[in-house]
Design a protein that fits this description.
The chain is an alpha+beta fold. The chain has one domain. Helices cover 33% and strands 22% of the residues. The protein has helices at 37-43, 68-80, 87-104, 140-156; strands at residues 2-6, 27-28, 49-51, 57-58, 61-65, 113-118, 122-127, 131-137. Strands 1-5-6-7-8 form a five-stranded antiparallel beta sheet, covered by helices on one side. The chain has a three-stranded antiparallel beta sheet with strand order 2-3-4. The radius of gyration is 16 Å and the shape is globular. It binds zinc ion.
Amino acid sequence: MRVVLAAAESLEPRDGDFAFATPGELLGLPTFVCSTREKRATCGCGRAFAGLSSGKGTTFGVVAELDEAAVKAELAESASGAFWPAHGAAHALFWKDLLAMADAVADDMLGTEIRVAVENGTFTILRPGGGPTTTGARPDALNAFLRAALAAEASSDSEDRNLRG
Ligand SMILES: [Zn+2]
């Protein structure tokens, strides 16, 4: 399946680039992005991919082809290190997010460097030299689910922990 991998350096560096993800790791999209375009620009979340394993952001990635089983294994590995209480559901949503990205880069040549613009609920793949863009939708349930997971995690630190057995 089509994937986007982190690269050490950009072929077309831009001011404001950052590359904190581990080169070669699978890239997804940031779990949360800031609420307004201005905040997203300042923060960087609106123009970043997120490393699936490192959880770190990077502003460019490279289109590649990976065996679906390998992608699922890397996703499972990253999810098992996370704290989402309802593990399976989070996993399924992240998988949907990756499939949406795979669709968005389905026609790109392997090795193409791409960038991304992330909004709440959608993302747009930006291509080199001002080439055509492709917009995709993120899973509807992702935002609400992750907020609920974070709230549950916060409350598990409080005294009701013993109610969970
Ligand atoms: Zn942000």
